[in-house]
Specification:
12% strand; three-stranded parallel β-sheet; alpha/beta; single chain; 7 strands; 9 helices
Length: 198
């Protein structure tokens, strides 16, 4: 998840994690100039990277992101009309949910996976494991508090993937121009995921 203070920072951060081996990125709509950043990254990487839009709050924003090159959408909350928009155009959608009722509602509405947010605030990997017991058929992606130290725990608890934010890309390093830090972190996350799945 790329949540930066400006468009240029988002683009350069994605270039860095790409060099580190990550082939999927989400630019949040909280980034000033996010739509332009989506367009530029989509043009630069083409089909080398799966690009998505995050913090999508409504179907109108989803449609604008789609036209800019987003292949998937992530929302912080449950909006059934946004799910409907994504499905209409055969795009992947991962709506945010927290409670069991929200998780099931999102899945029944057509979510490809359900973003469990804010996961760390309610128990982290233990919460994913608890949700997976009654909902083994639902693909879950925890976000909020995912780090190098706990990503393996989330995957072993049954998460199909994990959303990583500031633990991968932080504004302090962007301010200092240290994009190489993101490349190294990307490599370490890939190693941690491989180890957890082995």
């Amino acid at each position: 998840m790329v949540r930066t203070e400006n468009e240029e920072g988002a683009i350069r951060a994605i270039e860095a994690i790409f060099r580190g081996g990550i082939r999927i990125a989400e630019i949040t709509m909280t980034v000033p100039g996010a739509i332009r950043a989506l367009e530029k990254v989509a043009d630069e990487f083409g089909d080398q990277m799966v690009l998505g839009a995050g913090t999508v709050l409504d179907p109108e924003t989803a449609r604008a992101c789609m036209l800019a090159g987003a292949e998937f959408f992530v929302t912080p909350s449950l909006n059934l009309k946004t799910i409907e928009m994504a499905k209409r155009y055969s795009k992947v959608i991962t709506p945010g949910a927290l409670t069991p009722t929200e998780v099931l509602t999102a899945w029944e509405a057509g979510a490809d996976a359900v973003k469990i947010f804010p996961c760390s605030a309610v128990g982290g990997a233990k919460y994913i494991k608890a949700l997976r017991a009654p909902f083994p058929q639902i693909e879950m992606i925890p976000t909020g508090g995912v780090s190098l130290e706990n990503i393996g725990d989330f995957l072993r608890a049954g998460a199909c993937a994990a959303g990583v934010g500031a633990e991968l890309i932080d504004n302090a390093n962007i301010h200092e121009g240290h994009y190489e830090v993101f490349e190294e972190r990307a490599k370490r996350f890939i190693e941690a995921i491989a180890k957890a799945r082995a």
